Amino acid sequence: MLNNREWAILIWGAGILSMLMARREVRSSVAKLLRMLILPQILVPLIGMVGYVVLEVWLGRKVWLWRSQFTKDTIVWFVISALALLVGFNQASKQPHFFRRRVVAAFGLTVFLEFFLNLFVLNLIAEMLLQPVLLILSVFLAMAESDDRLGVLRKPLSGLLVVISLSLLIFSVRQLFLSWSQLDKPAIALQAALPIWLTIGLLPYIYLAAGVRSVQSVVGRNGREDRDPSLNGYERTEGSARHREGESLGLASLQPR
What we know:
single chain, disordered C terminus, mainly alpha
């Protein structure tokens, strides 16, 4: 079941999406994106990842790491974290220490704070007011980070976000203290660990997908060269011309003067 924060995000997201979809160019871009999603090079890894995550969940349930009440959290993790890994899976074969970096990030402080801040939420009206404020501050901070002309806004915007985050953290600590005796502590611990073991378990699939894509790229490049003899012919012609030029220079140096 969705909490108040998730309902607020869903309501605001649906409203913004409805306004954007009223514009023809946005509808055209969305249609192009949907057509891209059914391309084999995107659809096949995506379907494979869905099956892999289902296997992860099944194994997690067997070892008592996953419960049916974690279905929503698993879907949220898939949409936010798993898809982000899939989009950037080419980095797995290029980025040094890819596995170590992702494992360290999975155990990072950010993951813990994100879980703890979402453990207790405000009432729906407060969340409806809070979420657009956070969105606007985040957008302006991103603009200030990328544009030196707005650099003077970086510290004030960062400070506001820190104040809001600390306020939510204090609220969560207070609620945790007040409701400690009623909490299902084992379930909370499993819920906190869920994104960690799901992410770490997904890394082998991401690495495998990156390896397969690299092999396909090499094979495809070789195939294009074989199907396009003009490139190889050009290389052979250029090489022959250089060879004849070298021979003419060599013969010229041997002629008597």
